């Protein structure tokens, strides 16, 4: 809650019939003002002057009259710098989750309800020695909420609500994700690439709000214009015509024109004998030759350099859904054009 909300709350707590105030509110997307509907007589002026958070100068209250024709517009106005909408990916700017990726569930006048992957810090024993040392803040690893694990780690039982949410000391979890209530000045639209680990946890949660939403590509994925891909749904091959943040535009080789597709609905076109490099996932950096492909799994002969001699080791399985492959030249170690 910001100063504006506190000022409105305090004002409405103290107002009486002697004050000709019909309503008071603030807009979450605008900071520095509250809006009062009523008659500004001596009683009301005195009440406003004594309300914490409201600025007073030597000449009196800092006030501006709103034209009656604009009264209704106040209820829906937004600061252009803080405009976010439902089902958008955002970046958190303040607080414990500063810098984290979030997904907007709902936008209200005061702010937004946002989903994030929990980063819960487990309790640690505090000793006299540790208190004297300078503490280095370590960011907890992201992981989906699990009630059994939470109970064991934090030694308290989260409460299961009738709507399927779990709550514990003000924290709200749903489908493994944490729900945060943030004002619109604490978030911004996300334009940066996102690690596959975080996006993978969002997808793994199967949260109903995320179903059918467009997921941006992980930062490790490499797709380029002119690259050949196949569509998962139909198996048709296509050429990438344009690379966008939330989708790809592909030109079908069947002369059916162009189509907009999700990042997650295409696969790179590979053939046995191609030399590739793994760019994400637990096998990141592995290089080798494609032996064969079975479904979403690519089997590789790994390439290892020992001096000037190259050798191949046992088969390595690489899954399309957890990593990406790029063509590379084993002699010059560059991505092929």
* H-E order: HEEHEEHEEEHHEEEEEHEEEEEEEEEE
Summarize the main sheet: 8 strands, antiparallel
Derived structural class = alpha+beta
Secondary structure: number of strands? 22
Structure characterization notes:
It contains six helices and 22 strands. It has 337 residues and is α+β, with helices and mostly antiparallel strands. It folds into four domains: 75 residues, Alpha-Beta Plaits; 111 residues, no CATH class; 41 residues; 53 residues, SH3 type barrels (Roll), CATH 2.30.30. It has an eight-stranded antiparallel beta sheet. Strand 5 and strand 6 form a beta hairpin. The longest helix has 12 residues. The two termini are 53 Å apart. The C terminus is likely disordered.
Question: What attributes characterize this protein structure?
Answer:
Alpha-Beta Plaits, 337 residues, 22 strands, 4 domains, single chain, alpha+beta, eight-stranded antiparallel beta sheet, elongated, five-stranded antiparallel beta sheet, 6 helices, 14% helix
Summarize the structure.
The protein is of the alpha+beta class and 337 residues long. The chain has helices at residues 3-14, 42-49, 71-74, 128-132, 147-154, 196-205, and strands at residues 21-25, 35-38, 56-57, 60-61, 89-92, 101-107, 112-116, 159-160, 166-168, 171-174, 177-182, 187-189, 228-231, 237-243, 248-252, 258-261, 266-268, 275-278, 287-294, 297-306, 309-319, 325-327. The protein has six helices and 22 strands.
């Amino acid at each position: 809650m910001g100063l504006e909300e506190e000022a409105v709350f305090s004002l409405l707590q103290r107002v009486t019939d002697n004050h000709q105030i019909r309503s008071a509110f603030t807009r979450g997307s605008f900071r520095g003002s509250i809006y009062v509907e009523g008659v500004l007589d001596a009683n009301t002026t005195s009440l406003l002057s004594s309300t914490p958070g409201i600025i007073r100068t030597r000449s009196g209250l800092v006030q501006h009259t709103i034209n009656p024709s604009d009264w209704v517009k106040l209820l829906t106005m937004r600061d252009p710098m803080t405009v976010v909408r439902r089902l958008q990916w955002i970046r958190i700017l303040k607080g414990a989750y500063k810098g984290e990726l979030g997904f907007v569930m709902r936008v209200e006048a005061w702010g937004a309800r946002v989903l994030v992957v929990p980063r819960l810090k487990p309790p640690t024993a505090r000793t006299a020695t540790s208190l004297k040392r300078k503490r280095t803040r370590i960011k907890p690893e992201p992981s989906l909420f699990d009630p059994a694990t939470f109970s064991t780690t934090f030694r308290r039982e989260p409460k299961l609500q009738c709507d399927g949410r779990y709550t514990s000391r003000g924290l709200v979890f749903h489908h493994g994700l944490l729900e945060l209530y943030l004002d619109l000045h604490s978030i911004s639209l996300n334009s940066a690439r996102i690690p596959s680990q975080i996006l993978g946890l969002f997808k793994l949660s199967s949260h109903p709000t995320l179903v059918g939403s467009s997921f941006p590509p992980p930062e490790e994925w490499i797709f380029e214009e002119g690259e050949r891909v196949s569509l998962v749904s139909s198996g048709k091959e296509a050429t990438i015509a344009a690379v966008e943040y939330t989708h790809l535009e592909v030109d079908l080789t069947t002369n059916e024109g162009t189509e907009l597709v999700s990042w997650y609905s295409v696969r790179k076109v590979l053939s046995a004998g191609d030399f590739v490099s793994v760019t994400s996932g637990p096998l990141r950096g592995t290089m080798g030759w494609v032996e064969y492909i079975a479904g979403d799994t690519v089997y590789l002969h790994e390439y290892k350099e020992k001096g000037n001699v190259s050798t191949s080791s046992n088969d390595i399985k690489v899954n399309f859904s957890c990593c990406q492959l790029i063509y590379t030249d084993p002699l010059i170690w560059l991505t092929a054009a």
